[in-house]
Specification:
Layout: E1 12-15, E2 20-23, E3 29-30, H1 52-56, H2 63-84, H3 90-106, H4 114-128, H5 135-139, H6 146-159, H7 170-181, H8 184-203, H9 212-223, H10 230-237, H11 241-253, H12 259-262, H13 267-271
Antiparallel strand pairs: 1-2, 2-3
Helix pairs in contact: 2-3, 2-4, 3-4, 4-6, 7-8, 7-9, 8-9, 9-10, 9-11, 10-11
Length: 273
């Protein structure tokens, strides 16, 4: 038996749930070769692949190869489903297939569920395109474990040499929620206010909290007289009324103002402070 490339151990076990052979000593995933080069969800004629024989080729394959191939196909299918639930971008939906295979061959996934793999890959690729999706939004499709997905996303980013792509596009997220709540014009005002507080946070060497998004939108609604309630903002942004209230108070304390003092003043006025 070929020894493990990581620790040179020759003792392995086959994980039937994941369809992978794992080193007993260091946990490295070792993948069988026959199926790897030809796996596709669709053949060259554009027809959906349904049988394992087509997946691994017409030549005879052993039981191990068939089991692994079926598991890979399941992972690919779930990955495409997860991506398709969030975007209609054909290029992204197609790209996730090659990304899955690359990570699978390199043993990036380790011992993780199919759902976590699909979710983490989706999150990574969305953020690679700088698209504003939160961890919670992407995990919702399969109700995936957020900690596992977050850890796996970082490993995927490292595999592709793009560690920085795991960062959330907060400005894009603010604008996305603002458009959903009101209009494109309102989203532009929210973007201006976000830039104001982002600069203040940088000056104070503080990091942006995900829930600041809700605070920025609510503050902008007060400045622009848009009549948005904390409940409505919280529902859109995935947080509670209390969180919206606390984030609003925390952000306004940076400029020494209260909700009452900023009502109707306008976004440009806030930027002048």
């Amino acid at each position: 038996m070929i020894p493990c490339v990581e620790c040179n151990e020759t003792s392995f076990h086959f994980d039937e749930h994941l369809g992978e052979r794992v080193c007993d000593n260091c946990g490295l995933v070792v993948v069988s070769e026959p199926f790897e080069q030809e796996i596709r969800l669709y053949d060259d004629d554009g027809n959906a692949i349904r049988s394992i024989d087509k997946l691994v080729g017409s030549k005879a394959v052993n039981k191990y190869d068939r089991v692994v191939s079926s598991h890979v196909l399941r992972g690919l299918t779930l990955s495409r489903m997860c991506m398709a639930s969030l975007t209609q971008s054909r290029s992204l939906i197609d790209r996730i297939e090659n990304a899955y295979l690359s990570c699978f061959r390199a043993g990036v996934f380790g011992i993780s569920s199919y759902e976590s793999r699909a979710t983490a890959l989706t999150l990574y690729l969305l953020r690679e395109r700088n698209l504003p999706y939160t961890l919670a939004e992407v995990c919702e499709e399969f109700n995936s474990n957020r900690k596992e997905v977050s850890r796996l996303t970082k490993r995927i980013a490292k595999h592709f040499g793009n560690a920085g792509t795991t960062q959330l596009n907060y400005l894009g997220l603010v604008e996305k929620h603002a458009v959903s709540l009101k209009s494109l014009e309102f989203s532009k005002s929210c973007g201006i206010i976000f830039a104001k507080f982002e600069k203040l946070l940088q000056e104070r060497e503080q990091t942006i909290k995900p829930n600041y998004v809700a605070g920025v939108i609510y503050i902008t609604s007060l400045l622009e007289y848009k009549r948005l309630t904390q409940k409505k903002v919280g529902k859109e942004c995935g947080c509670s009324n209390r969180t919206v209230r606390e984030m609003t108070k925390e952000l306004l304390s940076m400029v020494g103002k209260t909700e009452k003092e900023i009502k109707g003043k306008g976004a440009q006025w806030m930027c002048s402070l």
